[in-house]
Design a protein that fits this description.
The protein is of the alpha+beta class. The protein has helices at about 5-10, 25-35, 100-110, and strands at about 40-45, 50-60, 65-70, 75-80, 85-90, 95, 125-130, 135-140, 155-160, 165-175, 185-190.
């Protein structure tokens, strides 16, 4: 199991400038997030077997724990990075990964914590409510589909906590209509995250 790259969740095709260009505010929010002591990324997506839930805890500069649950899986699938060593397994029974897989995880981890860029152009939406909480909202729209049916034109909205200045949600959904989001990522900043490498974990065997 490889960690889901945070940067990949944020990228969207660049679009022409909006009247109220607030892209710098979005970049500032994610830059502050990546400088935090730790942060958590969570989202769920449907599958043929049922809902898949992913949670990733990042503890800069070099720790990460990804957990994936699904009705199709025998348990919680985990991937861990601690320094220059990576582990993977089910429900705490972890094996140390081989160097080629570890390097790939390290590269994706570093990419996830890099200063965001190429995010597109975000317009200011001002104060907006989501899940009964008020945030500062910023939106970018896929302008390549601007002439299409608005219900099929996708928009990404970043919700930022006005007090902390940290991202709270990243939501992708059709611009028009009342369809459910295609992707709803929740960001949180728990204070009790502790990622410790397993002791005497066996080295992964190639099958």
């Amino acid at each position: 199991m490889r960690p889901f790259c945070l940067a990949a969740l944020l990228l969207i095709a660049a679009s022409p400038a909006f009247a109220g260009d607030c892209t710098k505010d979005v970049i500032a929010a994610f830059t502050k997030q990546h400088a935090a002591k730790n942060f958590r990324v969570e989202f769920s997506q449907p599958s043929a077997e049922g809902e898949v839930h992913m949670k990733i805890d990042y503890v800069p500069p070099d720790k990460m724990l990804q957990s994936v649950t699904s009705p199709a899986m025998p348990g919680e699938q985990q991937t861990m990075l601690v320094g220059n060593r990576a582990y993977a397994g089910t429900s705490g029974a972890l094996e140390e990964l081989l160097p080629q897989y570890t390097q790939s995880i390290i590269a994706e981890f570093n990419n996830a914590l890099a200063v965001p860029k190429d995010l597109g152009t975000y317009e200011c939406l001002g104060k907006s409510k989501l899940d009964d909480q008020e945030y500062l909202a910023y939106r970018t729209v896929d302008k390549a589909a601007s002439k299409a049916d608005p219900s099929k034109t996708l928009a990404r909205t970043i919700y930022v906590d006005s007090v902390s200045g940290l991202p709270a949600y990243n939501v992708v959904k059709p611009l028009g209509g009342s369809a459910a989001p295609l992707l709803k990522i929740k960001y949180s900043y728990p204070t009790d995250v502790e990622i410790i490498a397993p002791v005497n974990a066996p080295v992964q065997k190639l099958h």
